[in-house]
Write a structure and sequence with these properties.
Blueprint lengths: L4 E4 L2 E7 L5 E9 L2 E9 L10 H9 L1 H16 L13 E9 L2 E8 L10 E6 L2 E7 L7
Parallel strand pairs: 4-5
Antiparallel strand pairs: 1-2, 2-3, 3-4, 5-6, 6-7, 7-8
Length: about 140
Amino acid sequence: MKEEILSSPIGDLRINESDDGEVFAQGRYVASGEPVFFSIKLPARDRLEEVDFEFIRERIAGVKPYTDVARDFLDLRLGLDPEGEDKAPLIAEPEFTFWGGLDWSILFAEGSLDICEPYGVLVNFHDARIVGFDDLSGAEEV
């Protein structure tokens, strides 16, 4: 199958379809000097007109503050000592997924938390507010 690339206001997007038929547009956006990987769930192949690219750009550009908020949230929820001695990053390597509307998530693919093994931890947002997290430590490989 020929690789499908679409142009968007936030750069070129590679179109991928999951085994269950969901379609995602994926790319990298440079935020704070570092490229951030992101995925956008599309209602159907080539349906970029329904995507709020400004919403996505604002979230990715805020990678540092959103990472800080997510870390504080996990500290609180997991009962961690934010002033602990461990120098390893609690969460690292953020990847953004936009599910449609105001729902989006940050997958932290690496980190010093036990729940980061083997697939990371997913912090879920609605607009700018955290609504929960998913412990992926028991997830099955897809």
